[in-house]
């Protein structure tokens, strides 16, 4: 039975791959792929095998950032197999990304209702995954990150503690907990976690100092924060977030021209950050460039 299912799944996966090959005509990759899928799906009688196909489809869509198509595929997979933790976790990742696309945690902004709704859905899916596979620490870590995005810091810290007990030498969990401490204003605890993460991963010369810079900035220690961000942009001119933080600090220091330059550098470097942050930068540049404000 397992061999039969494997053959069916392999055939369908191969069919999808062929249908999506770039050298084929555009109409083939849409109409023919759908036709092949319908035909072979009819052959499959095992719901779990169908669910695997939808899940693999969702993974491909997700990687290509076709989020709505990925969501539909994940929904179909879960409807056919509600006992698969990995499927819930994958959909949770999707909901988190949808929320993160429109959140602005890097600039301490308010969370929009749409972002909040997606983060809540991600928590629900990670919780479902945990119930099905409670020993998978990645699900706790992912749920903790979503709780942090929602401002539910105590719940986030509880999840991170579960992971730390299971993986005490994993620097990523200390980085994540540090970010939660920063968001909740517990800067001393955040610094302690960042220093410990640095001990575990000495090669991190970008994000670890970046978050230390954010702490100094939020504490009003702008000189030390700027030193860190200056070092980061000198060594990694592509690091857009460091330019963003420099712009924010320059504004607080009432240095509009320096802020304009920093925000402009962010725009030149940015290739992946969400619309909320881009909107923030565009608005700040508009305000700073208005002669009435200078």
Keywords:
294 residues; mainly alpha; globular
- What's the helix count? 15
Number of strands: 0
Mean pLDDT: 86
Taken from the alpha-carbon principal axes, the silhouette is: globular
Q: Give the ordered list of helices and strands.
A: HHHHHHHHHHHHHHH
Percentage of residues in helical conformation: over 70%
Q: What proportion strand?
A: under 5%
Structural class: mainly alpha
Report the biggest beta sheet as strand number plus sense, adding barrel if it closes: none
Q: Can you put this structure into words, describing what you see?
A:
The structure is a single chain. Helices cover 77% and strands 0% of the residues. With 294 residues, the chain is an all-alpha fold.
What's this model, at a glance?
The protein has 294 residues and is mostly helical. It is 77% helix and 0% strand.
Write the layout of secondary structure elements.
Layout: H1 2-19, H2 26-43, H3 47-63, H4 67-80, H5 85-101, H6 113-132, H7 137-150, H8 153-166, H9 171-183, H10 187-200, H11 207-218, H12 222-235, H13 240-252, H14 256-269, H15 275-289
Helix pairs in contact: 1-2, 1-3, 3-4, 4-5, 5-6, 5-7, 6-7, 7-8, 8-9, 9-10, 9-11, 10-11, 11-12, 12-13, 13-14, 14-15
């Amino acid at each position: 039975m397992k061999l039969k299912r494997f053959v069916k799944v392999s055939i369908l996966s191969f069919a999808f791959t062929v249908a999506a090959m770039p050298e084929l005509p555009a109409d083939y990759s849409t109409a023919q792929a759908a036709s092949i899928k319908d035909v072979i799906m009819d052959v499959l009688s095992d719901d779990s095998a169908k669910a695997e196909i939808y899940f693999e489809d969702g993974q491909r869509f997700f990687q290509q950032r076709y989020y709505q198509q990925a969501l539909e595929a994940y929904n179909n997979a879960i409807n056919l197999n509600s006992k698969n933790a990995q499927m819930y976790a994958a959909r949770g990742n999707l909901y988190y990304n949808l929320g993160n696309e429109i959140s602005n945690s890097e600039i301490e902004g308010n969370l929009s209702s749409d972002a909040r709704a997606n983060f809540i859905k991600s928590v629900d899916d990670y919780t479902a995954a945990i119930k099905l596979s409670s020993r998978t620490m990645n699900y706790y870590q992912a749920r903790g990150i979503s709780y942090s995005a929602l401002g539910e810091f105590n719940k986030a810290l509880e999840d991170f503690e579960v992971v730390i007990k299971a993986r005490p030498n994993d620097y990523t969990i200390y980085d994540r907990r540090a970010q939660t401490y920063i968001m909740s204003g517990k800067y001393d605890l955040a610094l302690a976690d960042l220093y410990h993460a640095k001990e575990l991963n000495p090669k991190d010369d970008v994000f670890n100092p970046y978050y230390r810079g954010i702490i100094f900035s939020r504490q009003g220690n702008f000189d030390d924060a700027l030193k860190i961000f200056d070092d980061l942009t000198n060594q990694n001119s592509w690091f857009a977030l460091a330019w963003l933080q420099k712009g924010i600090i320059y504004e607080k220091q009432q240095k509009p021209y320096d802020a304009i330059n920093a925000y402009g550098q962010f725009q030149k470097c940015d290739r992946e950050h969400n619309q909320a942050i881009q909107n923030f930068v565009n608005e700040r540049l508009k305000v700073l460039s208005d002669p009435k404000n200078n």
